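INFO  loader      accepted 1 record
INFO  loader      residues=214
INFO  predictor   begin
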Amino acid sequence: MEKEKMKAIIEAILFASGDEIPITKIMAALELSKEDASKILEEMQEDYQKDNRGIELIKVNGYYQLATKKEYYNYLYPIFDKRGKPTLSNASMETLAIIAYNPRISRAEIESIRGVSSDGIIYKLMEYGLIEVAGKSDLPGKPTVYSVTKNFMKLFDLSTLDDLPELPRYKVDENRQIVLDDIIEQKEEKEENLSNENNIEEEENLNNNGKEWW
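INFO  predictor   done
INFO  writer      dumping tokens
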């Protein structure tokens, strides 16, 4: 079967579904290996990135879906007003980030990190479909744990959670204050350079004194 025809079939499958489709179903429909199916889907993603296309092919955790390009959101909103993006406060973004970087985290653990109650925010994020219940923890009392959803991945253009920006490393100093590792390393490096410079200066002074004695 020609590649362009296979692309057309995949497009039809994705359009008819209107939802995420696992690559395994595409493989089965076209009798393709995972490698071949992935190559075709990657080519389709490149095709949809052209300026004359209003949709794109997104990938989330091995699932594929056709979606409208974000730059055309303002044109869609007047017609599909129910598709409005959630308005996230700073507290909501903070809670969402904690859950994204700590999958399967409990409410108590979230509140321990934030230092304030997070019940209302958790309910709101669940209402928006950005987080979901991910089971029970093995901790005493078996508290409910939360993880981000595919909607979160789509909203922030992530294929997997590995695409999240790397967090700064930190240490806790003697005063129980958080200090970034990068800052500590820079400070230690400066102190080491200063120490080396002092050693060199002392050595030069000793050499000079020795010469004067002779």
